[in-house]
Amino acid sequence: MKKILLFSLLAISTLSFAQEAKPKEKEGKRSIYFGGGFVSNSKFAIDNQLEASNLPQIQANVPEFVFGLNGFFEKGFLDMEVSSNMFKKSNSATTSNGARSNLRLRGHYNIVNNNNIVFSGGLNLAFTSNDFNVYSQSNQVDINNLASSSTSYIRLRNNMFFAGPSLGFAIKNKGEQLVRLNVGYEFALITGKWKSDYANVSNSMNENGQSRLMIGAVFFINKLYK
Question: How far apart are CA 46 and CA 193, in angstroms?
Fold first, then answer.
């Protein structure tokens, strides 16, 4: 939680500084946006252990939902957004599910910016929290005798920090952004070990080498000020 708060403060400070650095007449326009897309993750290190234990692995390709704040200037823009995705997989005996939450800061330089389109490129920075669960489909719970219940449940989590290049292509309506296509490729720079709030974890590992491709579209729905 401290890492998320620190990242949020950094993003807000960066956005505020970028606005204050502009002369009054060239002050940026701020909008909120929402959208979705597709994320393709490289193989997780823990997948080898899951496969060896005949447990469902983490799903690599997942849809993603996005909500964010955009500060747009003549020469570039800043995004601060939250996104999430989830999955569920099963085999004959067990089921796995997981959720991933991201807090992302995106800074772009406008290569082309006219009344109709914006083509931009820049950098993504993202703090990611993973939550992964595996449970047996044969779990039995007796409400009248909970002590005799039989359960098999694994829940793991970790935090990761990603960075990587990204491109954007936006279509304008009357000079205002209407919709934007985002493409990015992020690499894990700081990879946290798998931990659990429900058990002691032995022989944990870092997700070294993790990367992901993201493609999505966002729609601008409201100008917060002119």
Answer: 10
Distance CA 8, CA 158 (A): 19
**Whole-angstrom distance, CA of residue 191 vs CA of residue 208:** 6
- Spans of the chain, pLDDT less than 50: 1-25
> Closest by alpha carbon to 3, among 157, 133, 122?
157
Q: Are 170 and 179 in contact (CB under 8 A)?
A: yes
The helices-and-strands tally (H runs, E runs) of the chain is: 2, 8
Q: Using CB atoms within 10 Å of the CB of residue 92, give its burial: 0 to 12 exposed, 13 to 18 middle, 19+ buried.
A: exposed
CA atoms of 35 and 32, how far apart (whole Å):
11
- Partners of 103 in the beta sheet? 82, 127
Phi, psi of 127, rounded to the nearest 5 degrees: -100, 125
Q: What is the pLDDT of residue 58?
A: 92
* Cα-based distances in Å from 58 to 126, 134, 136, 194: 20, 10, 16, 13
CA distance 190 to 194: 13
Who contacts 65 (Cβ-Cβ below 8 Å, separation ≥6)?
34, 35, 36, 83, 84, 85
Q: Which of 1, 2, 15 is nearest to 125 (CA)?
A: 15
**What gap in Å lies between CA 102 and CA 118, rounded to an integer?**
25
pTM of the predicted model as reported, rounded to 2 decimal places: 0.81
